[in-house]
Design goal:
This protein has 379 residues and is of the alpha/beta class. It is built from ten helices and 15 strands.
Length: 379
């Protein structure tokens, strides 16, 4: 038996700054014994919960199922140990695969080299047993394998998600410096908005926050557009149970009311991109999007405001962003009475320029940006 079969223990990769809410989400999806790890969260789950986590989680990047863990002091031992795994349990010669690796405080110092040794072990194992070898596809493989070495202890896992779960499938068009889907979902969750009040994004860009808000309000599984998952390649995959998970998730879907979610942007290209992306998941046009300068909006009262304002990257501004944020703060204070605003500052120094006292603020990375999410209660 493989390690995950003995322990029912898995690892959900997620950003460091959202591990707390990732743990909460995992528990809501049925996971138990949740504990924090480096760049992710460990959890216990049966097969049904494992499938549900991959299908419904909005926050995690991927789920790893450990096959074997061992002390690893050299590349030769990594290779020889990996050769002993029966890789035909997960694929055959006609399938493609890829390996991604990470190393920390290890005699094997380079992650790409570690991945190469594991790849060689898989290929040579097939060649020895079948006379043929499977192909590597680093873009859309049939299965991903993961190797993590920390303090000379190696863990080889199967990626149960089949690639990063942040790729929902609705983003057909984009703008410069788009927000990652998991970051947008984190903002929606941290806002505690659940579809009971209107939501507005006045800097909607390509519509990622709007799409994640709609998926949450409609209770649509975040990975409902994904055609295949890595857990379908596990030797103990239960197709009947997987269909049950999908069927029960579909029963929970509701139709949000028209106009519940609105967005706007001053850039015509962004508005067009947002409309195209939102229609992928919202064919009935519940989400309303229009081109508009935020400072021409009369008011946004008694609503939940979520937004990712420009910080120079998307707008290409060379002028004073400090003045822009002061104007934004004045707008919120004067025209948004009774609303609660959740604003993401891609460059955290602009948080001080908005001229409003935040109820709370917390770190939230987006790509390479060490940003901050702040809440403003607008009385």
């Amino acid at each position: 038996m493989y390690e995950y079969q003995q322990s029912n223990r898995y690892f959900a990769q997620a950003a460091e700054d959202i591990k707390e809410i990732v743990g909460q989400e995992l528990q809501q999806l049925g996971a138990t014994d949740v504990s924090s790890g480096y760049r992710g969260v460990y959890f216990s789950a049966g097969s049904e919960t494992l499938y549900a986590v991959n299908y419904r989680s909005r926050l995690i990047n991927r789920v790893l199922a450990p096959l074997i863990s061992f002390k690893c002091h050299s590349d030769r031992y990594l290779y020889s140990t990996a050769r002993q795994i029966e890789w035909r349990d997960f694929m055959d010669n006609g399938h493609t695969f890829a390996v991604f690796a990470s190393v920390s405080n290890s005699h094997i110092r380079h992650s790409k080299y570690a991945a190469l040794k594991l790849k060689d072990a898989i290929v040579d194992s097939f060649r020895e047993k079948t006379g043929q070898r499977p192909s590597v596809d680093t873009r859309e493989p049939d299965i991903w394998f993961n190797l993590h070495i920390e303090s000379n202890r190696a863990v080889i896992s199967v990626d149960c998600s089949g690639g990063s779960l942040h790729r929902r499938g609705y983003r057909l068009q984009s703008v410069q410096a788009p927000m990652a889907e998991t970051v947008a979902a984190s903002i929606i969750r941290l806002s505690e908005w659940g579809g009971n009040s209107p939501l507005y994004d006045p800097f909607c860009g390509s519509g990622t926050l709007l799409c994640e808000a709609f998926l949450r309000a409609a209770n649509i599984p975040s990975s409902f557009m994904r055609e295949k998952f890595g857990f379908q390649r596990l030797p103990d995959f239960d197709a009947t149970l997987w269909k049950k998970v999908q069927r029960e998730a579909r029963k929970r879907i509701v139709q949000p009311r028209h106009g519940l979610i609105k967005g706007s942007d001053i850039d015509a290209g962004a508005v067009q991109a947002a409309q195209i992306n939102c229609r992928v998941i919202d064919p009935k046009k519940v989400i309303t999007i229009r081109r508009r300068d935020i400072f021409e909006i009369d008011e946004i009262k008694e609503q939940t405001i979520v937004c990712n304002p420009p910080y120079g990257l998307r707008m290409g501004k060379k002028g004073s962003m400090a003045d822009f944020y002061k104007q934004l703060g004045d707008f919120l204070k004067q025209r948004c009475t009774g609303s609660t605003a959740f604003i993401y500052f891609g460059k955290r120094e602009y948080l001080k320029k908005i001229g409003l006292r935040s109820s709370w603020k917390r770190p939230l990375q987006n790509g390479g940006l060490d940003g901050r999410l702040a809440r403003f209660d607008l009385y």
